[in-house]
Amino acid sequence: MFFGADQDTATLNGKMYPHPPSVFMIHGRELFVRALAHNRRPAADTRLKSAPYWNTNEHGRVCLGSMRVPEEIGARSLSGWEQAYFASEFTHPSGAVLLTTHSGGFLGLWSSLVGRHRFPVQFLADTNETLQEFVQKHGKQ
Fold first, then answer.
1. What residues contact 24, with CB distance under 8 A and at least 6 apart?
2. What is the DSSP string of the chain?
3. For 85-131, what is each residue's pLDDT tens digit?
4. Which of 13, 86, 122, 128 has its CA 20 to 30 A from that of 114?
């Protein structure tokens, strides 16, 4: 992962990290992301978690910043959007979203994950919405 040029994130920059299972949604030229507690295909009633990443607000909307997004919009381009997301710099918190329940917050979470192979899903924060609610609410904006 890459982080902006911040003194607090300098030791985290450019290292490999495990990631939680995730759901990505493209709407127009916008990208939304949520995390999952279990690594399996979600159903409409699957409860979603906040994606534990900066640049992602409380609605799951990603601040694209300088991210190089695919020209194509649609299901076939989803892997390109995902790659662009993780190749971008995570530079700032976006809004009043609880990104993680880790006692050390965002920086503590990612510091604890250096060199680990599994993401500890117990540190994912609840969004209080299901996949269906997420798609209905944010897919129409």
1. 31, 32, 33, 78, 81, 82, 85
2. -EE-S-GGGTTTTT-------EEEEEETTEEEEEE-SSSS---TTPEEEE---TTB-TTSBB--TT----S--SGGGHHHHHHHHHHSEE----SS---B--TTHHHHHHHHHTT-SS--GGGBPEEEEEHHHHHHHHTT-
3. 888 888 877 766 788 999 999 889 999 998 899 999 999 999 999 99
4. 128
